Amino acid sequence: MTKTLMIFDLDGTLAESKSPLDPEMAGLLGALLDVVQVAIISGGDWPQFDKQALAKVPAGARLDRLVLLPTCGTKFFRFVDGSWTKLYSEDFTADERRRTVAALDTAIDRSGFKPAQTWGDLIEDRGTQITYSALGQQAPLDAKKAWDPDFSKRKKFKEILDPMIPDLSVCLGGATSVDVTKPGIDKSYGIRKLVEILGIPIEEMLFVGDALFPGGNDAPVRDTGVRSIQVRDPDESKRVIETFIACVG
Prior knowledge:
With about 250 residues, the chain is α/β, with parallel strands linked by helices. It is built from 8 helices and 11 strands. The longest helix is centred in the middle third of the chain and has 18 residues, at about 95-110. It is globular. The mean pLDDT is about 95.
């Protein structure tokens, strides 16, 4: 069946962790918008989407065909009448926020994963998502890549954290991060909202991400039945996009 919507993770898929799209990827994204609708769903908040993706999209790109879902789909933005409009935001309650931060603090102590050097805050409240970044929010890319390349440290961290906040969703994301959202509000929720708001059936969607393994923050999309492609890095994503454009162009 023809695919009318391509959905991408951001960090590790379209760009390196918290880094902007490189010129080749930006050009490919612009070309892709000429032939299909595109959605980006990732753990970062709106400012990160703006800096990493929107600032690099080529001038004249079909932004009316682009949909952005920050913080793992807990927010939804569309380009309407020349500006970005937020359609919904699944914010934490004060109690959920308090319990999550306390649980993260405890899990940090119990895990034993205390690096000698950190860069910035370890815990960031993004309103709809609370994220733990093991090396800090501003850690350099090389340090992040070296810290947990096989996700083993974060899998252990998740095992410690899950029982403390069983009513919330915990997923692994980015290069060093663990994301906590409201129950059932993860990337599968974002996919279902795309169906509801855009009116596009699951069968016409294609998801591309680097964390589709069990426990990864892309893994929940599999629950929706959407066809998914696991990639290693942005370079592999570029080849997927090139192939798609060649097939439909």
